[in-house]
Amino acid sequence: MNVAIIGTGYVGTVTGACFAELGHNVVCVDIDSRKVDLINAGIPPIHEPELAELLKKHARAGLRATVDYNDAIPSSDIAFICVGTPSDEDGRIDLSIVRSASESIGDALKLADRDSYHVVVVKSTVVPGTTENVVAPLVRGERDDVGIAMNPEFLREGKAVYDFMNPDKIVIGGDPRSAGMVARLYEKIPCKATLTDIRTAEMIKYANNSFLATKISYANEIGNICKKLEIDVYEVMSAIGKDFRISEHFLNAGAGFGGSCFPKDVKALIGKAEELGYDPLILRAVVRVNEEQPMRMIELLVKQIGDVRGRRIAILGLAFKNDTDDIREARSIPVIRKLLGMGASVAAYDPLAAENMRTVFPDVEYCQSAADALSGADGCLIMTEWDEFRSLDREFDAMNEIVVIDGRRAVSLDRGVYEGICW
Ligand code: NAD
Question: Do 191 and 146 share a domain, yes or no?
């Protein structure tokens, strides 16, 4: 099938590359010509394992990119909206990018052959009602022969290609004809699609992410209580995870969740609930625990070393999780902001995300290795669970004094001061 992908960020690029791998003809559209040029050169615009191989294989063969909607949409059978859906300043969903992409699709569809059937699919995470009330009127215009569907994405950054090709669920909302066309795209993937209506598909994505975020905040809350009782929360969670009703996943207590999805999705669902006159008590608590959690790292540090003014603090890990360069809502951000505000000097190291973080904190010292960041440091905070941190050992000896506060249970140290945030 001829597929158009609108927006070539984490979701769009991976979706485009994977559909090309599944044998479809893909054209990606982005307003950012830098990303378009990179994709056409077979180079991923973001860091994601396995993506470079796929782009190299398919660029300019089954996959190309353009900034021109008119070049992509009229000849496509199906177009996926994969643009960002950030939070506005009140935490509610900001649909301005979705609106703008929908308008551009609508304009380009005016040029399409009148006899052809087109389906526009929303893959971006949008609150229930958006696809039918916002996207559909804009893409259809005067045309009633444009099908609409909703196909939320569940991939994890850092494992995005694997997750796309090996999903545990594919959810498609829409009328039988449109949803059937979307389902055919995934035919070669051995996973039975869940077919439903559009609003339910939209809600499934929010319920899914909010539940996972709730598990993490729950583990953190139990972890904070365990810490006071000198109980190892990891032992507790490992045991309760054996209960099949709970499962062992997403119970790692630590510095909290970040990323482009959980924080904004939970807030967007809170905003939608408020709009409907419902006060979402659990979701509010999930956000509150998550916002307070990284600050506990600083409390523990100050308890150990006192005033941080003028002291060198090593931050190991900037990305919101390992295997990605994405720093959106990373827990390292409020921690660095607070430390700088307290007069500390911050020496940071991350294998991938330093360049992205430089745009947020230009005055931080970005080091080439964990050893460089630790050298001469008065304290160290571990903010991301990078594998390479697990083998750190002698590097800590170069600190002024070994004081390590671990927010991810990434290292184990048998000397100096080592404290886990929740253990
Ligand atoms: P992103 O910000 O990485 O990418 C969005 C892309 O859209 C950018 O390249 C941007 O230049 C482009 N864009 C902006 N306006 C455009 C326009 N008018 N026309 C064409 N392109 C335009 O976003 P993302 O992380 O890929 O997320 C996209 C959506 O998928 C969001 O709704 C997100 O919640 C959801 N989602 C993300 C993930 C994830 O792990 N990142 C997982 C599941 C779902």
Answer: yes
